[in-house]
Amino acid sequence: MKTAITPTREEDFAQWYQNVIKEAELAENSPTRGCMTIMPYGYAIWELIQEEMNKRIKATDTQNTYFPAMIPMSFFEKEAEHVEGFAKESAVITHYRLKTVDGKMDVDPEAKLTEPYILRPTSETMIGEATSRWIQSYRDLPMKLNQWANVFRWEMRTRIFLRSAEFLWQEGHCAFATEHEAMANVQQMLHVYGDFSKEILGVYSTLGEKTAEERFPGARHTFTREVMVQDGKALQTGTSHDLGQTFSKSFNIKFQSEEGKEEFAYTTSWGITTRMMGDIIAGLADDDGLVLPPKIAPHQVVILPFYRGDDRKDEIQKACLSLKQKLADLGIRALVDTTDARSSDKMWKWVKKGAPIRVEIGERELDAGSLSYVRRDIGKESKETLSTNDFLGKIDSVLEAMQTDIYEKHKAFTLDNTRTAKKLTDAEKWFKEGFKGFVLLPLSETEGAAFETVAEKYKVSRRCMPLDKPDHVIIAKSY
RNA sequence: CGGGGAGUAGCUCAGUCUGGUAGAGUGCUUGGUUUGGGACCAAGAUGUCGUAGGUUCGAAUCCUGUCUCCCCGACCA
């Protein structure tokens, strides 16, 4: 069978992944090393993610802010573990002027900054400095801030959406009076991510805690949302950190308690990134391209007018536009593709772009007052012809069903490719046999040199200790 | 950042070994026939051969530097 994307997932997953992105016009590599240009269709998906996530963040009484992208280098020096974590991938701004020499641009050596700036890899330091001034009393707590921003990490090896030198994210930074409240916030936000994944992204994820070696630099506990993509590798998209008093001590985030005592606050940070686009692509797309869950589809219903010649073109287009309006009245994002292309070309275009529902209206439907529609996740077998009114009556439930079916399918895939091992030797045997997926291994089996040898040999690492199985560790390859 | 591969028309790529002045398929434009899971015919447009330098009468081709991408590692959301 011919697929819209070549090679297929089976043939070459990495190449398939890139072609899906290209064919769906989500993003492209930019001339700037390691950075991507997010194209209109890709950004529209990100905006839907943002919109819904922003709502959920605000529902936790967190306020949005904006801090500078450039961080004074000295800020990083204040937290030893943190610097070490990011030092190797920092982009540094050292000059503030260019000059032209022999027709060529170069930095002006005269214009060297006395203190260089780091392009933020994350904003704990910047926000820590500010909140140390903003927080005086226990009455100022909790202070729950968030920002939507770009961050920079000079990655050695980049992959579009999965790892790029610049990416977009949301970073929440909160301060609390007690350890208990901070921990509750960390847990709450992790579940905000988990629920979002299930309800909006249509992606099954495992929530868990990172082992010590995988923790965020400076954190006491790091919680994560791990997603299995279709080559069996793990994608970490969404983290929530308990920073304890690490940053409050480095940045002097102090408050006076009810008893009049001066105390250090407990801080947290949590974030999701444009890597979530990778969840959708690598996790849900198929050999015909993107498959979008309705809730993050820029166009939930794409209406294609089919006509022979120009005879009834206007009539058919009118019917399409009227349907679009009726869908809009129901709160459904619909698009009529009136572009002057062959119907089959338009059809494949929207298959590759993952539009959830494709509606076709041609002469047959026009005369019958009906329409035909196809679900992207099922394909042409799902094609159904029914009256426009019947369609309008059931479209909500069709989209709802599709949203959950996509999630259930991904969940089944993840569980089918997850095994539980009693002993490290079982895991080793499976990896040796070429097993691709998650192995749940008892925590005790991951301690010691034998584990490191296996991890090294099969390029697997500790992903997390699942919340519902805290005495086990998920072992897998990861991006 | 180490090892490997690649950069030639919008896209996929041939041409490079053996130097002689730019090709195919597809897409695009125009006209016509078509049209419900990837149509066909005809005509047409398209290139600083990634980039900078060097060798040469002459460079896509040889040499050097450099940038970017892909794959496998090490590092990471």
Offer a few descriptive terms:
single chain, 479 residues, alpha+beta, BirA Bifunctional Protein, domain 2, Rossmann fold, Translation Initiation Factor IF3, eleven-stranded mixed sheet, five-stranded mixed sheet, globular, RNA-binding
Molecular structure report:
The chain is of the alpha+beta class and 479 residues long. It folds into three domains: 13-284, 2-Layer Sandwich (BirA Bifunctional Protein, domain 2), CATH 3.30.930.10; 299-397, 3-Layer(aba) Sandwich (Rossmann fold), CATH 3.40.50.800; 418-476, Translation Initiation Factor IF3, CATH 3.30.110. 36% of the residues lie in helices and 28% in strands. The protein has helices spanning 13-23, 40-58, 73-77, 80-87, 124-134, 179-201, 246-251, 275-284, 313-329, 343-352, 363-368, 388-416, 424-432, 449-458; strands at 27-29, 36-38, 63-64, 70-72, 92-95, 98-101, 104-107, 112-119, 143-152, 166-176, 206-209, 221-228, 234-242, 254-256, 262-264, 266-273, 301-305, 334-336, 357-361, 370-375, 379-387, 418-420, 438-442, 461-466, 472-476. The structure holds one RNA strand of 77 nucleotides.
